[in-house]
Specification:
Helices cover 27% and strands 21% of the residues. With 478 residues, the chain is of the alpha+beta class. The radius of gyration is 23 Å and the shape is globular.
């Protein structure tokens, strides 16, 4: 389950800071989550009916009893189980890193120091015959932090992330920055401390051996690395990479975060001749965290085709559910009120409280861009391909020169574009993230939630280069 991807088309709208107040009780927060979901989330109105509504009410009553006794960090897990019931990657508990000075000082004094060093970590990870868990290794986050993830002596399937290079003087080398537990489904529960000692409870998974997706957050594997690499940048795991492999070009896109749009555009521009002359293009989207779909637009001339295949989704009008939160989101997320699109949308929302309204029509499409490059294109996906990454998958499925290989995606496009709202006055720790739109007013009919986008051909996607070798073979007709 991917609780918190980056939003599909727009930046997350964060609640503004409030003066410090006494934190609300967990039962108050749970009721606030419920009220906000029922007022704003299109998926609740379209899908929580009949037997599902009865199951929802029963679930809430059980969690309300738990919330009445939950204090401190225990409240997060109650809230997380509530939003997890919807099985929608865009409904999640947003964990603010706000922390008061007293708690910061208390946690600083309680930092656990281990005896793990760079030397001992590499020795442990290199021991011949040692069977390492996929999460064990030396990882980097691209922002100065390097950690060694090694088995913890406290129990089976538990690990600790120990600082090897710190991103702040507050955390010394040797400090335990995260506690990790392997789940039965092969994913991980990570309790990670931020620079200021704010604690976040994260869901994590390893993708293509060298990528640890923390939802939110991405780490790249530094050691031990596979013999063949190139699908994750050595300095910043979110940066796109491109490698040429004979007449095949392999592009790895880990993030659609707009912060990397310039890097992606530069990468494609610098590799223009290689892309134009290639026989085959493979775009690796395994573990892609989402973001803004337009980030990968520079690659579309090398993927799309003049003739189009029938797509598995589409045809319905995108709608928004009208509520005060939704109207406030439209004012802040779509641009100035003077824009015709914004004026029309806000007018529709204001005139129809509690109802679904279609988004205004898009402006006329731009002329078709020139189609360039390879006659054979592959997109590689897995269950970590989410949100904006899935937009690119849908475009590839319409192209006659492209095929999608791998595993079904996360299935986050039924309800896109995330807003984050405060659920109770004085609450500064946990907020609700929810999608502001529905791709159709007829969902769940023809939806992808809980299923994902199916590839043209299913293949195992757990390893790095063996997957690319197999996809390249298939593109060659082997």
């Amino acid at each position: 389950m991917h609780r918190c991807s980056l939003p599909l088309l727009l930046g997350v709208a964060l609640p503004s800071a409030l003066p410090a107040q006494h934190a609300p009780a967990c039962a108050v927060l749970l009721e606030g989550f419920r009220a906000k979901i029922e007022a704003n989330y299109a998926g609740f109105h379209l899908e929580v009916r009949g037997a599902r509504r009865r199951a929802y009410d029963e679930r809430y009553e059980r969690l309300a009893r738990e919330a009445s006794a939950a204090a401190g960090e225990a409240c997060f897990f109650v809230l997380d189980r509530f939003v997890g019931w919807f099985d929608d990657p865009h409904v999640f508990v947003f964990q603010s890193t706000h922390l008061d000075t007293a708690t910061t000082a208390e946690r600083a004094r309680a930092v656990r120091i281990s005896g793990v060093t760079e030397s001992t970590a590499r020795s442990y990870l290199s021991t011949a015959g040692r069977r390492l868990d996929p999460i064990e290794g030396i990882w980097y986050d691209g922002r100065g932090l390097r950690v060694a993830v090694v088995a913890d002596s406290e129990g089976a399937d538990t690990f600790r992330a120990v600082v090897l290079t710190s991103d702040t003087t507050l955390w010394p080398v040797g400090a335990v920055r995260a506690s990790i537990a392997r789940r039965e489904d092969g994913r991980y529960r990570v309790d990670l401390y931020e620079r200021n000692f704010a604690l976040r409870h994260l869901d994590a998974a390893v993708h293509k051996e060298v990528l640890l997706r923390l939802s939110p957050g991405i780490w790249g594997r530094e050691f031990p690395r596979p013999s063949s690499e190139g699908l994750v940048d050595r300095r910043d795991p979110r940066r796109p990479t491109l490698v040429r492999w004979g007449n095949t070009v392999v592009v790895s896109v880990v993030s659609h975060d707009p912060a990397y749009a310039r890097a992606f555009d530069s990468l494609v521009s610098a590799s223009d001749s290689a892309l134009r002359s290639a026989e085959r293009l493979i775009v690796d989207l395994r573990g892609n965290e989402g973001g803004s779909s337009w980030v990968t637009n520079p690659l579309l001339p090398f993927i799309e085709s003049r003739e189009r295949r029938a797509g598995p989704y589409g045809g319905d009008r995108t709608v928004m559910l009208s509520s005060p939160d939704q109207i406030a989101y439209a004012r802040s997320a779509f641009g100035p009120d003077t824009a015709a699109f914004v004026r029309e949308l806000i007018g529709r929302l204001t005139a129809s409280p509690g109802e679904f309204v279609p988004l205004p029509s898009d402006p006329p499409a731009a002329p078709d861009a020139p189609l360039l490059g390879p006659p054979h294109v592959a997109i590689v996906t897995d269950g970590g391909t989410v949100s904006a990454g899935e937009v690119l998958v849908l475009k590839a499925l319409r192209s006659t020169r492209a095929r999608v290989f791998g595993q079904p995606t996360a299935g986050a496009l039924d309800y896109p574009s995330v807003n984050v709202v405060r659920v109770a006055p004085g609450e500064q720790r946990w907020h609700l993230g929810y999608p502001t739109m529905a791709s159709s007013a007829h969902l769940p009919r023809n939806g992808m939630r809980g299923k994902g986008i199916a590839p043209d051909a299913r293949i195992a996607v757990w390893e790095l280069w063996p997957v690319i070798v197999e996809v390249d073979r298939r593109l060659r007709g082997g």
